[in-house]
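Quick start: what a row looks like.
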Amino acid sequence: MEPGFSAHGFDEDKAVDAGGGNAQISGTREGRKPIVSDAFLAVVNPAAGGGRCAKLVGPALERLRAGGIRLDVVETRGPGDATELTRDAYRRGRRKFLAVGGDGTSYEIVNGLFPEAEGGDRPSLAFLPLGTGNSFLRDFSDRGVEFAAEALLEGRSQACDVLRMKHKGGVIHYINLLSMGFAADVAAFRARHLQRYGHLGYFLAIFTCLARLNRRPFPLRVEGQSELDSRRCLFLTFNNSKFTGGTMMIAPQAEVNDGLIEYVRWGAIGRLGLIGNLHTLYDGTHVKHPLAERQAVRCVEFALEQPVDVMVDGEVLTLHCESLDVLPSALNVMV
């Protein structure tokens, strides 16, 4: 990481431009009109990928600069920083952002853009996937950093829906998926007890949750239904894109710009049935299982009695969910 790239530096209206010098960023303080910058604001999470991002980010950014991409760079110091930096930058006129990290970094940036961007100019989001999980980009390529860099250098972009979850504590936005049940149980157990074990911790969490296998209802009503669905299930996922965990095709029919939520439900399958069908989660054929079902819907209403653990774009949260809907084509993604 180059010196001077810090969250605090940006908060004082300073950033480093593509030429390496300090560039003043005009904002809305004291009545100033925001000035739209043509440069991408690269929001770097140096801790992503267990510190891998910090080691690789320098050469990756220099490649983009050498290709003519103008960049200003800020660095996060902890959870929530990317959201605050992005929100402040959008208010000051920034419309182009580069997520440097994993799915969690992109998730924070999206929540810095929305809800404010709902009534304003459509922002653009590019990616440098240097984190542990990079599931969203998997819909477009399995070439990771190389593909993402090419998309930026060639100026490729397309519209992308943003999903909006309202809960009793507020609202969150996401572009990948939100899961309840088994997938969220695994993610939550790993985050709370096994984070330091890396990928091994993920497999240990799977086996622990298999042993417990808490199949339970998450009462909800999807668009067009008059009755609540309170059936027990293994998991529910509400998807904008296809993949989770990097390679697991949880929603094979999801499209990022169709204006719909791809809702996938797997019923109360037993342990042996789940073990025997785990491989189908990686090629998307699990949706053909007799206990599985999918729908493409515009909205979902929840009737939960209490908060539940959810896994959203790789992050674990505990939310009392109320409703889910779509902001069609609210974001441009560079892919």
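That is the whole record. DSSP finds nine helices and 20 strands in the chain. Residues 7-156 form a domain with the Rossmann fold fold (CATH 3.40.50.10330).
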